[in-house]
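Hi P.,

Sorry for the delay on this. The queue was packed all week, but I finally got your sequence through. Input first:
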Amino acid sequence: MPYNKLNEEETHVILNKGTERPFTGKFWDNKSDGMYTCRQCNTNLFPSNTKFDSGTGWPSFDDAVEGAVKEISDADGSRIEIVCANCGGHLGHVFKGERMTDKSVRHCVNSVSLDFKEK
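Then the structure:
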């Protein structure tokens, strides 16, 4: 199946591992019920009931669809990158142990890496 066509900003983030500015993405404050999907390949990634307000300005999730998100240590070992397990598109980073939720996990995701299917 062919991937979705990406615009310049999406290419910068998804393919070149860039980061969008905080509080600017279309989903950082979305509270609708549904499923967040990969912008590049449409894979289901994050159910809306796992989203929480971290105050960081990026969509934050404390869980993902099982097997949909792959964790990769950054080259310097300081952070853990998250990518779509299907297409390898850059999503953002995951932070553990912050105690923002009961699961103490924060998938910090760029809005441009996502699409949303409302329920």
